[in-house]
Amino acid sequence: MSTSVDLDRIRGMDCREVARSLLGEPMRQNSRYAVYRSPLRDDGRTPSFTVYADGWKDFGGDHQGGDVISLVMAVQGVDFKGALAWFGADSPHLPTPSPTRGEGERKHSRPEVGPPDEGWQAAAMEVIVGAQRTLWSTAGERARAYLHGRGLRDDILQQAQIGYVPGGPREWRKMCGLNVPCGIVIPWVIDGVPWSLKVRRAAGKPKYMQVKGGSPAGLYRVDLVEPWQDVIITEGEFDALCVAQTTRLVAAVALGSASNTVRDMWMGRLVRSPRIYARLDRDQSGEEAARRLAGLSARVRSVQVPEPHEDINDFMIADADRMGQWVRGLEAWITTQ
Fold this sequence. Notes:
Layout: H1 7-11, H2 15-23, E1 28-29, E2 33-36, E3 49-52, E4 55-58, E5 65-66, H3 68-76, H4 80-86, H5 103-108, H6 118-135, H7 141-149, H8 154-159, E6 163-165, E7 172-175, E8 178-181, E9 183-190, E10 193-200, E11 208-210, E12 230-234, H9 237-244, E13 250-254, H10 264-270, E14 276-279, H11 284-296, E15 300-302, H12 312-318, H13 320-328
Parallel strand pairs: 12-13, 12-14, 14-15
Antiparallel strand pairs: 1-2, 2-3, 3-4, 4-5, 6-9, 7-8, 9-10, 10-11
């Protein structure tokens, strides 16, 4: 005789334990989530199938996700009834239910925001390609001169897919269905997927504008961090590019703004780095951002560029050789917050 299934009991289980029953040990984990190679598609070099206490999210492919029952349906290839059968009271798969979690923990552990939808991604990629082509044409001569004046070499600009949309500082262009401000285009492409497009305008405030529809949840250049590299977290994309063209010993990622932070799904990619530093502005927002990062991991140590330089890019412009020495000797520049 079949055993009845208590849906509330099933939905109260820790999804991470169910995933372990289905998929074995995760590739990496922390107190909040576990990461596997996706069982639903070819995950390539970067595992992104993430399981939380009360849900799961596949951050590649079609970005599927859901609760503990949908996890069994997706991995086992069964319908809802088949998933309930997997959870039958007599099933050897059934893990011990976790204690009931408070509402605050449930909210905290939900899957994080992923990249934009595939339609936006496709349009953004066309914008990136077109803006790159313009930057390296005669129409992009002034923009290239500006970027060279910021200390950035052609090789790093090409690697970072920096582009240019010509026009006045208050003008916009309709490109591939997206409204794009005119200026220097800074794509946030992670694992080949466009997460957002940022534009540095020639004048006016704010200097930086985002193309509508992008995701705020990315971390600039996180996909280029190697496990053996130290990492420095910066505010600006140009800061990160300056570090990238200076040394291979230190990788640099960028928040894009002091109001952003490193989300857990990205922090998991940094845990194997020997050292993690944060170089944020000396103002109140920068100090608050540094405290948030320190709250994510005790391994994050704050550093500052020597005065009178405002940031890494400013330091590079003033004295590239000394900036290189600073990057290679970050351990000597740790500050207290």
